[in-house]
Design goal:
nine-stranded mixed beta sheet; two-stranded antiparallel ribbon; 16 helices; 11 strands; about 450 residues
Amino acid sequence: MRITRTVAGRSRRVAVLATTGLTASALLLTGCSSDDSDSNESSDANGKITLTVADYGQFGYKEAGLFAKYHELHPNITVKEDTTADEKVYYPKLLQQLNSGSGLADVQGLEVGRIKELVDTKADQFADLSKVIDVNEFVSWKEKQATTPDGKVIGAGTDIGPMSLCYNTELFKKAGLPTDRKEVAAKISGGWEDYLKLGEEYKKNAPEGTYFMDSASAMFNAVVSSNAKQYYDESGKPIYKESPSVKQGWNLAAEAADKKLTQGLAQFSDPWKAALRKSTMATVACPAWMAGQISVNAGDANKGKWDITTAPGATAANWGGSFLGVPKSGKHVEEATKLVKWLTAPEQQAAVFKAIGSFPSNKGAYELPDVKNAKLPYFNDAPIGQIYADEAKSIPETILGPKDAAIKDTISTQINNMEQRGTKPDEAWEAATKAIDKVIG
């Protein structure tokens, strides 16, 4: 997973090492800027080229040794990474650079919550990758997200976030609930409504000081993510006020807050991390990248106490994911596009998955041993390669909008207010819609 993506309530600060064997460990990794060199000084008289890759959080390329490997394959090319820890800081800077036409790296990371806005307003500033990558290699909906109406592709897919449910088997057992993956999946097979019913069962015999879920806002994001229509319709009109998926997610979140099924912790906050360490929450909505958050923050003392099963309901969901784009203004556009093609090929995506747990968007990676046979020892050897690959292939194509990220963040904030401050649902919804309308105009 790429660590510290705070878009849409998603902060990525931690990585999980997934392998094909019985040994897998979590790594605590933080984003830092590794190089501030400008692409204007990226070649010398001897034909040596330096390509810069600007990204946010953790894309996993350095951890997987891919930049060093690329240099071995292409001795005249050195790749340097410039990482911003927080995507919320990274994106405004990217927009400023695109507007000014200067300061851009040879390769830029692009967050899925921003991709629609970039496709609609900045596509002409990115190289067309449609002739470089084979879009059919990726899960069907991935490259469509980065494609303009006339077929131009501004970004090659990196990871995706297939949804699952992570649960604390020790707390489930103490509350008299089943702990077997298949039995838990059966209990929530009817959807997120069944998930709340399971929460009520948990509450009846819950160990003192524990809660069924960490965050109702996380559940909201998971519910919305399982629907094709979310915040916008096909014409680009904002429909979040009438959207059935938003209404469902909001009502379930309000119910969870009212019934005290949630600990009310903003995900990735210090209290949330402490709660994982203290084992006070029994379940977490789990996109592929979340396992690393749990394993590192819960710590070695809780290894083997967690497991992973399929998400509630029969509809697959995706939460998160990114792309790599090549600005036209770069001095080495051809070399940069070749690097992007190589980084997003099956073998390299599998290497990143093995190193930090970011699940591939390139379908070819699913049949490689490091993905297909991957298990997580921390989560009772949960077969994550199988779980996530099965879900990735059936995730519906989502209608994206230019301000998806802002809408998600604003609604999540108000759900947190319902949980933490006792704000009434009607008042929270009114505050959310007023704030969103100011942003989207």
